[in-house]
Amino acid sequence: MFTGLVADKGRVLSLQQGAESAQIEIESALVLEIKVGDSVSVNGVCLTAISLSENSFKADVMVQTLRLTSLKSLEVATSVNLELAAKADSRLGGHIVQGHVDGIGVVKENSNGEKWNKFVVTIPQSLTKYIVNQGSIAIDGVSLTVGDISGEDVTLWLIPETLAKTNLSEKKPGDLVNIEVDVLAKYVERLMKRGGDDGK
Question: Could you give the CA distance from residue 93 to residue 139 in angstroms, rounded to a whole number?
């Protein structure tokens, strides 16, 4: 489990594509805290560290993960949002983020304001039912509060702290981003569908 609070902006050092998986190497100061086998959120995708070097770690990415997430658009030197898995005694500063991407969004607008950026993302229509004003959403692993939703367009306001500590400041219209909706909304939907069947 993650909290959507980015711990570091890493940098892609290499990408190696295989028949059934790809391997990604990421440079990050977090390597000092990572052990082989640890879960690391990379742009909101939960990956497992398989090897470490002095300043980087490697992780395998399955073909299906590439197909279903924005990791397929990564290039060498691209910056990525990184977060280590939360510990039992961690403070939940963002919201519960699983690292299981629900869909891919497309950046529609990222415009500078006096105090913050207006950030608009077009999300898959199937996910709009889980989005509410002032609710939580994870975009490329960043826990954000929904400012408004109109059709398939979700508007968020990025504060200077978010712009400085994440790669969202670098996003341009047309860029792909990973979307994870609030898992609590999915639990509620599941309960409503089951109704009074006593779990049978």
Answer: 16
Q: Domains of the chain by range and CATH? A: 8-84 (2.40.30.20), 103-189 (2.40.30.20)
103 neighbors 170 (Cβ within 8 angstroms): no
From first to last of its 200 residues, what are the pLDDT tens digits of the chain?
A: 899 999 999 999 999 988 788 999 999 999 999 999 999 999 999 999 999 999 999 999 999 999 999 999 999 999 999 999 987 666 666 788 989 999 999 999 999 988 899 999 999 999 999 999 999 999 999 999 999 999 999 999 999 999 999 999 999 999 999 999 988 878 788 888 876 555 55
- Does the pTM surpass 0.85? The reply is yes
